[in-house]
Prior knowledge:
Elements: H1 7-17, E1 25-29, H2 34-45, E2 49-54, H3 57-67, E3 71-75, H4 81-94, E4 98-103, H5 118-146, E5 149-154, H6 167-187, E6 192-199, H7 210-221, H8 231-242, E7 253-256, H9 268-275
Parallel strand pairs: 1-2, 1-4, 2-3, 4-5, 5-6, 6-7
Helix pairs in contact: 2-8, 4-5, 5-6
Residues 29-30, 32-36, 54-56, 76-79, 104-107, 127, 154, 156, 199, 201-202, 204-207 line the site of nicotinamide-adenine-dinucleotide (NAD).
Amino acid sequence: MPHLKPxxxxxxxxxxxMKRFDHRTVIVTGGARGMGAAHARxxxxxxxxxxxxxxLEKEGRTLADELGDQAIFSRLDVTSDRDWAATVxxxxxxxxxxxxxxxxxxxxxxxxxxxxxxxxxRQVIDINLTGTYLGIRAVVSSMRKAGGGAIVNISSAGGMMxxxxxxxxxxxxxxxxxxxxxxxxxxxxxxxxxxxxxxGPVRTPMTAGPDATAAVAAQxxxxxxxxVAEPEEITQMVLFVASDEAGFSTGSEFIVxxxxxxxxxxxxxxxxAAVA
Length: 276
Ligand code: NAD
């Protein structure tokens, strides 16, 4: 005679086998490579259907193919209203209304203010800040259809403090933080939470260029956790903030920076002497 499990045990087992984003539709901008690709993988592993939205068609399609039925690629320039409308339409058509948007696409340009061309300033603000605004604007009605959702804006430790020679980047990341708070106030009644994430140095193609590699390595040496993070470490925070586990958090900053905001840690020899 088969051993019948009591209903409460069956319920517990079913709950355990459910994943945090089962059947939810997620858009990750800049999802073709770097941190965005890690986030796309992380959401798929948690049961989501993911739209990898990026300018990089080859990388984006390759990743979508690798992830199988739970992922599609949509070509998106985050500065284009029309691209946003097409990406949200594709997400709804293939997977259903959007529950999560990760505004991750971003660029950095280096140079002192006095020597930077206004066109460079405008490009960084356009992608990092205006692109985030356009994304929020584009998904609201879809999220309302889904009954609510979570928007995660990828800012930076540079959205909490200053770095030299990256004025447009720092301004865009402070802007994304302010935008997050206003959007959170406006959208709470729609059951849409909006938060920002502030990574420290992370190993991605963005930090692999000659200017960035040196700057990031120098910064990492002085951190309380003296290393560069792997993209998957930021993904864990993104998944948490987007999930129902963070259901009472909105308009907030989630910092995952190895201690950047603490300021430089004392050199190890001195710290050991102080303890002795
Ligand atoms: P990355 O350069 O590896 O990836 C950025 C992605 O954004 C690329 O796939 C790129 O094609 C895409 N993108 C750029 N412009 C776009 C546009 N107009 N439309 C659509 N997609 C566009 O960079 P990353 O390091 O993975 O950075 C991801 C996010 O994290 C960025 O917002 C970045 O500012 C932020 N961040 C990075 C670090 C770091 O140390 N790497 C630290 C803090 C914050």
